[in-house]
Amino acid sequence: MINLPDLKTAQINGKKVFLRADLDIPIENGIIQDDTRLEEGIETLNFLLGKGAHVIIAGHLGRPEGKEEKFSLKPVADYLAKKLNSSVKEGRVGEFEGWQITPELYLLENLRFYPEEEASDPVFSQKLASLADVYVNDSFATVHRAHSSIVGIAGLIPHYAGFMLKKEVEVLSNLLENPKRPLTVIIGGAKIETKLPLVEKMHQIADYVLVGGKIAQETKVLLKVQHEKIEGRKSALMVADLNPQMSDITSNDAENFLQIINMSQTIIWNGPIGITEGLEENHEISSFKLAYGIANSGIYSVVGGGDTVGYLKKIGLLGKFSFVSTGGGAMLELLSGEKLPGIEVLGSV
Questions:
Q1: What's the sign of the alpha-carbon dihedral 290, 292, 293, 295?
Q2: Please, what's the b/e burial string for 176-188 (b: 16 or more CB within 10 A of its CB; e: otherwise)?
């Protein structure tokens, strides 16, 4: 079990708090498409402000190359101002650009506009730490990254886990230690470079591993070869075929997936198994069939990953899942037994 410092015990009245939040949300033409991650973080923010802290929120959006306007966090500033019945003013905190939301709340511009962030540059980490007295991480989706705002700053000033991050770790750790079986893990999506190594590690905890989407199409042979090499206990592996249009898994594989789901007691789902963008009204696609099947099964279900969560929210089934994780890769890495840098620096195992 991972022990994290309890934010409720922190002395923060009148203190400056650097809040590392999960701000990596879908934004199109300056309009937020899904505010799930922002909503999940409101509890920690309200707690800090209610305790008399001066809060500096920071995070990242996307993978910008330098300062790209389309990756600006200005829409997030507007969102927070609306939540707090305030207005946005451009300002600076130290040498960092950002916005004043209220006299007690600032938002920094996208930290990935600075290459030193992802490089975990110690000088940059010190600059961030100099802005505050206390550090709080409430961004579970980024704790598998050893970046300045996740690891570097936490090692320099008193630090705590936010409520959302703490809940994620508790729920997923319990799931890892004592899941109801059979346990089925469904992995889809297109981020092959991050998900392929995790498919193998899922054999450590799962009874069934179901793989669909682009990752299945491009790595089918490799996945099966890796599976054959695993010694000792290993789960049953099913890798779906794609339809001729390469847009979805076949109907036959979708039915096979559903049969395994109906035999399970616990489901973990990360990544759509076909294209879902713009297909919210199409109930014939496999991602909808799986979502509907899981949501109405009564099985304990955990879902994570921005694309999957966003899709489930659009089709009105998100609330039917037992637990919604804000993390994608972080969720899978924690469940596969990896030590996550952002968690390690906060507590102890």
A1: positive
A2: eeebeebbbbbbb
